[in-house]
Amino acid sequence: MTQKVTPNSDPVGSVMVLGGGIAGMQSAIDLANSGYYVYLVEKSYAIGGMMARLDKTFPTNDCTM
Fold this sequence. Notes:
Layout: E1 14-18, H1 22-33, E2 37-41
Parallel strand pairs: 1-2
């Protein structure tokens, strides 16, 4: 991060999140909602990480497509 955030100040700066999996996407959303400019970088052509390769999810066995 480019600047430390204190409780009495607004966030200033930007962050880079490396990895577009579930954790990377959630981190990017949380940081953007906190007021930071976010750069999400993924090495492959699509985001989603390992989750994008699954066809069913636990525990409900819902289709992820």
